[in-house]
Amino acid sequence: MHISLACLAKPVLHGYFRSSCSWRVRIAFALKGIEYDQVPVNLIKDGGQQLTDKFKTLNPMQQVPAVEIDGITISQSLAVIQYIEETRPGPRLLPTDPKKRAQVRMICDLIASGIQPLQNLYVIQKIGAEKVQWAQHFIERGFQALEPILKETAGKYCVGDEISMADICLVPQVYNAERFKVDVGKYPTIKRLNQTLIEIEAFKVSHPSCQPDTPADLRA
Amino acid sequence: GPVLHGYFRSSCSWRVRIAFALKGIEYDQVPVNLIKDGGQQLTDKFKTLNPMQQVPAVEIDGITISQSLAVIQYIEETRPGPRLLPTDPKKRAQVRMICDLIASGIQPLQNLYVIQKIGAEKVQWAQHFIERGFQALEPILKETAGKYCVGDEISMADICLVPQVYNAERFKVDVGKYPTIKRLNQTLIEIEAFKVSHPSCQPDTPADLRA
C-alpha cells in the first residue's frame, strides 16, 4: 500500500480570524475532529496580506480561506468543506436524503452567493462611504429570504435535526450581521438556530474571538 | 416533469438548462421576465416559489429548489446519465472551486439587482468584477483543464463557465485576454447541450435576439 506523505501532514488553513468564510472551514474541521495548522492572513495589515504575490500563488482570487490538504490547495470554503466531507470520517456534514441535501445546499448558496459576497471586505471597500448601509441592505435582503426558508426546513438545526453545512454557513453570517448592526431579532428562526448552534463546541472553539490571530482587544 | 422558472438571459438559469440537456431530461419552462412589469421575479406569487426573488427556481419531484448549483447537484444525485462531477474527490474539489469562484465570486457582483443598485457606473462595476474573477480563473484553469475545465470530462465547472463568458461578452470584456477561458468556451459552445440551452433560442427569447 502506498501512502502519500502529503496525506500524513496536517492540513493548513490560510485564513483570518474574522473572515466568515474562514470560520466555516474552522467549524467543519472541528466537527470532523480534524487537527490542522493555521497560517494567518491579515486582510487589513500591510495593505492586506492577501494581496502578496506569495498568497496569490496559493489562491489567485486573493481571498481567504485557502487550504493546503493532501498535497493540493483548495480555495472556496464550500469546496473545501465538501472535500473534507468526502474524504474524512466522522459526523456527516450533509444528510443522506437527496432532497434534504438540496435544501442544505440551497441554504448554503443563499448565504455564500447571495449575501456574503455582497458584504465582504473587498466589495465594501469599493462602495466607500455608504458601506454600512450597503452591507446592511444585502444582509437584510438575504435574511428576509432565509427566514421563511428555514421556517420550513428547520428542526433542531437548519435542515431537520442533524447539523449540516447549512448550520456551518449560518452562524458566521449571523456574526457578520451583528457586526453591521443588523437586528437579527427580526428573524426569529435564524435567531433561534444561531443561539442553539453557538453553544456547540465546534462552533465555540472556532469562534473569531479565540483564534491564533485574534487581536488582544477582541479576545474572549 | 420538472418545471424551470427562469429567464432566457439569466446565466444562472442557463446553467440549469445545460444540466438538464446534458442529462437528457425533458422539462417545462415558465419564463420570469426580470425587466417587464418592474420585474416579474418581484411578484408575491414568485416570492412563494423563491423568497430570494431570483431565478432560477425549479419545481422537481414535489419540492422547489432555488440556487442553480443546488438544483444541478440534486439532478446529478437523482438522475442517471453523464456524470456532472468526477469521481475523484480532488477533482471534485477543483470542479466545485471553479463553480464557486464563478457563482460566488463573479456573478453575484454583476447580476441585475446589484448593477441596478450601482446605477450610472454599472458597466465599469460589472467589468471590474468579471475581470477580477477571470484574472484568477485563468491560472486555475491552466492547471486543471484538459479538454474541459477539469480534465477531459464535462463537469459543473464547464456548466458555470460558458454562461459567465456570455455575461462577460455582454459587458464588453475582452475574453481574448484569457486564452484558456477562451479556448474552453469555444470548445463547449459547440456541444449540443450548450447550444439547445443558449439564451438565443429559448421560449422567452425576444424576436430581435433570436438566433
From TrEMBL, chain A:
Top-level division of the source organism's lineage: Eukaryota
Keyword Protein transport: no
Catalytic activity: 4-maleylacetoacetate = 4-fumarylacetoacetate; RX + glutathione = an S-substituted glutathione + a halide anion + H(+)
Name of the protein described by the UniProt record: Maleylacetoacetate isomerase
UniProt-listed PROSITE patterns: GST_CTER (PS50405), GST_NTER (PS50404)
Gene, per the UniProt record: GSTZ1
Family matches, as CDD domains: GST_C_Zeta, GST_N_Zeta
InterPro entries linked to this entry: Glutathione-S-Trfase_C-like, Glutathione-S-Trfase_C_sf, Glutathione_S-Trfase, Glutathione_S-Trfase_N, GST_C, GST_Zeta, GST_Zeta_C, GST_Zeta_N
Keywords: Cytoplasm, Isomerase, Phenylalanine catabolism, Transferase, Tyrosine catabolism
Biological processes per GO annotation: glutathione metabolic process; L-phenylalanine catabolic process; L-tyrosine catabolic process
Molecular-function GO term, any one: maleylacetoacetate isomerase activity
From TrEMBL, chain B:
Residue ranges of every copy of the GST N-terminal domain listed in the record: 1-83
Pfam families linked: GST_C, GST_N
InterPro entries assigned to the protein according to its UniProt record, in alphabetical order: Glutathione-S-Trfase_C-like, Glutathione-S-Trfase_C_sf, Glutathione_S-Trfase, Glutathione_S-Trfase_N, GST_C, GST_Zeta, GST_Zeta_C, GST_Zeta_N
Keywords: Cytoplasm, Isomerase, Phenylalanine catabolism, Transferase, Tyrosine catabolism
E.C. numbers: 2.5.1.18, 5.2.1.2
Superkingdom to which the source organism belongs: Eukaryota
Biochemical pathway: Amino-acid degradation; L-phenylalanine degradation; acetoacetate and fumarate from L-phenylalanine: step 5/6
GO cellular component, one term: mitochondrion
Family per record: Belongs to the GST superfamily. Zeta family.
Name of protein: Maleylacetoacetate isomerase
Organism lineage string: Eukaryota, Metazoa, Chordata, Craniata, Vertebrata
Underlying gene: GSTZ1
